[in-house]
């Protein structure tokens, strides 16, 4: 039983409207679900992804208005990668980010792939990563209504970076519990810091990697807008998820137990450095309650919240995501 790779990454935003504009207009992603935080339905939960919202392409945001900025530090998910088809695509993205006034670095090699670092409007840290040398890793299907040409479009999630003060306990969870394996290391860009360790799961490839960074020069992260809340890993189905729940319980990790998120089923637990992990099933998927051609255009609520729709809509600030 192997985790298949990264399922989704969930981050924090203070401004749903600006978030929607950035991720659809600048990055060209599709809003695949406009819903609410199921644990706090007074705020939005926005899901972006490829045309169908396939697992492994999903980037999600909880909106907490007036949230303080993220303070970067250890015990954090410190960077998220987004896959593009080729090295040439990175040249396109340099120009596009410049055109939109987005802060970015230079194209550099990282773990054997060309990458382009940038920050979103709330300073969340990203890398665009080329699939040039990962030709057999299945990619998502770019949205045909995106303003980004298909040959340069973002096709899914790439490596996720964790930053911790001491890596040993996190390594044990990744390898002994979750079945990741050490693939490689590469130098840190920070002086006097250890090399970054690359762990992979499933069939490998950029969408199945965790990059583990040790930093002795940072305080603990204070999660805020522009920070990442959790990373989810892919389980094939619900039966497999229940087996993972048994395994997490046997390892004596406090956890959420089985959680039905309607669009997928989940388990949550924190590894020893305090980073929140989720294991999520590939299905049922985001077309469960909306037609594929109209994903994300209206407020979608899971059945257990549908009876509260009027109250929820009265609290939420309107967010127009209808098709133009």
Automatic annotation (TrEMBL):
CDD domains: PcpA_C_like (cd08347)
Any one Gene Ontology molecular-function term assigned to this protein's record: dioxygenase activity
Keywords noted in UniProt: Dioxygenase, Oxidoreductase
Gene3D superfamilies (UniProt xref): 2,3-Dihydroxybiphenyl 1,2-Dioxygenase, domain 1
InterPro entries the UniProt entry points to: Extradiol_RC_dioxygenase, Glyas_Bleomycin-R_OHBP_Dase, Glyas_Fos-R_dOase_dom, VOC_core
Coiled-coil annotated spans: none
Pfam assignment, any one: Glyoxalase
Domain VOC: 5-131, 156-282
PANTHER family listed in its UniProt record: RING-CLEAVING DIOXYGENASE MHQA-RELATED, RING-CLEAVING DIOXYGENASE MHQE-RELATED
Protein name: Ring-cleaving dioxygenase
Source organism (scientific name): Niallia hominis
